[in-house]
Amino acid sequence: MRDQISKLIKEIKETAVTGQEELEKYRLRFISRKGVMNTLFEEMKKVPNEKKKEMGQMLNELKQTAQEKFKTLIVSLEVEKKDTGADFMDLTLPPSSSELGSIHPITQTRNRIVSIFEKIGFNVSEGPEIEDDWHNFSALNFPPNHPAREMQDTFFVEKDPDIALRTHTSSVQVRVMENQKPPIRTLSPGRVFRNEAISARSHCIFHQVEGLYVNENVSFADLKQTIYYFVTEMFGKNTEVRFRPSYFPFTEPSAEVDISCFICGGEGCNICKHSGWVEIMGCGMVDPNVLTNCGIDPEKYTGFAFGMGIERITMLKYQISDIRLFTENDIRFLKQFQRLNY
Ligand code: PHE
Asked: Which residue has the higher pLDDT, 261 or 308?
């Protein structure tokens, strides 16, 4: 038995282990309970008592040698694995960051406009995108044969009675005036629809923010001051504003608002078509007929309204040359607005 043990110790020392498979073979032969150890322990039972101590020590030595070599083999093979990178996972590495989305530029501009007007007491009201003739046209003083009611501008859903996709969010303001008493200060942001050919400059679906203020003694001076405040907040202190007389059925007098071109500083460029000015919105004093239509006494109350296209404001502010980019959802475009700090 002594010889057998010495032979095994020698064998252990000489066994070369270079991979996981060989390591497993080694384990089965020298470590596992079913390997050589088992046979030797069985034989131990037959050893006469006076020799038991000596044999026991030898057996222990064999066991230790086998186990120590096994431990070093495990460590060295593990290191090898690390070196080649195979099957190795570094659990201390920070996780790779997942891609975050961003807020769409139209939503960002909408939020910015809303927050500017919230500071001066405007709230936000919403209404349906599918509207009846009354809220989209009639209450707003559109004469029966006004061209804006015709097919080229409006997507009709049903005829007689007319149901259409709203062409502006002024319809929401009619609903607010019908249901609330002055003072009313409200903004209606939302999606609107017009039957226009899609091009770089116009789309059949776009977004507006319209504003309405109705109270006693509201004057055109209040309207101008409100617009000045908005332009300064949105486009900066040095922006100049001009009001050009215009026409809308629901306001009288009406105006269009231009601001000095902030791209060329008024010198003339592509964006302002070399005029030095860019148009940003329509506005005016609410026509007394509209107030009457909505159940508000025009003898007691006056009001102003304004409306702007969110796409247009965003295009001007970020020099975007094609309105279609907003709806194409091209990640390369949207990513540029990830860090906008309005
Ligand atoms: N509703 C008008 C439009 O859609 C904008 C506007 C609103 C003009 C309020 C004047 C007053 O073009």
From this structure: 308
